[in-house]
Design brief:
Chain lengths: ~180, ~180
DNA sequence: ACTCACATGTAAAGAGTTACATGATTTT
DNA sequence: AAAATCATGTAACTCTTTACATGTGAGT
């Protein structure tokens, strides 16, 4: 399941442009699958070249043509085949945790900064989830609700753990002097 | 913070070979930072070329020379500079959640399989964490304990959420027929 | 007899991120 | 007057993954 496939899935909800899909990635998929324009536009071009989506160009004044994509029956088949995979991955890549592993080489200040910034990022995710639930909750399929629920459960668990155990960690950080 | 830097950090704990570091990645770092031989060996070669680690070659019979790496003062400086970054990332890339988003396009059987496999993987992580705590708990720095604690909190939160909400999701999956 | 652990490395392929390139309209 | 939104795309770069390549010794 790569960016192409996720784009295909998003298009089952209705036609959209690359720009629209980017918004969708940011608002609902961002916490577990991110993609920038540099991934999305080539993905759509590739899907179109393989007949998995159709593209309708809508001329505009000043701006580039708006290209609206819609999924084809062949695209739907490819998507369903992808959804049939029994073991989709769930991977974490955390420079945050890698940093924490070496907390004993950091000063208490450095550690506090890293921990506080993580909490701040978690809280911005909380706001994102709240926003999603207040605006899009009704129009989206149940699977989306589930992923938002998991996202929230995950960040709350992390926040709680940091708040309950962070101070203990700071007691073991290095002194300010870097000998 | 890339594979190179994590290797550098691991070497602050004592000298090790690429093979040893791979073990370390699997047993303690795997849940938030994975790396294979194809990343580790080139990383060590690059660190050695830049004088951040020293390499001692130990001839062996039959097997390739065992190359034992140790961190240099310059390497330590580079590591400390890396640990000074205030906003280390924490990224999730989940084909699992991406699949769940489109649960309404899957059969109840497909969905159950995906959910069960995820639970099974979570349980194998639980065992890994137990093993770590029973064997390496004492020798590792406090930061490691913290990361294992977060890892456990995260997978438990996910497991709980799936167990409490998974059946509700299955009520909304597609019928077996793919029209 | 077979498989697992030990032990290192290269090369090609695959995927994503970042920076660049352009420019009108709408909101603050 | 500045900033954000709309709107698309390419090219270079970075990084990881996978497959290949080789071979011994110990345990089951």
């Amino acid at each position: 399941m790569d960016v192409k496939t996720v784009c295909l899935g998003m298009l089952t909800d209705g036609e959209a442009s690359g720009y629209d899909l980017k918004k969708h990635f940011e608002s609902s998929f961002g916490h577990f699958f991110s993609a920038g324009y540099g991934s999305i536009y080539p993905a759509l071009a590739s899907l179109a070249a393989n007949g998995l989506v159709n593209c309708e160009c809508i001329p505009q004044n000043g701006k580039p043509d708006r290209k609206v994509y819609s999924i084809t029956p062949a695209g739907r088949d490819v998507l369903l085949a992808e959804l049939d995979k029994p073991n989709p991955s769930h991977k974490v890549r955390s420079e945050f945790l890698a940093t924490i592993c070496f907390a004993h080489l950091m000063t208490a200040d450095q550690l506090a900064t890293v921990l506080n910034n993580r909490i701040a990022e978690i809280e911005s995710y909380e706001k994102l989830f709240d926003k999603f639930e207040h605006t899009r909750m009704h129009e989206t399929p149940h699977g989306m609700h589930f992923t938002v629920g998991i996202g929230r459960a995950l960040i709350l668990a992390m926040k709680k753990y940091i708040q309950e155990n962070g101070h203990e960690l700071q007691g073991h950080s290095a002194a300010a002097a870097n000998f």
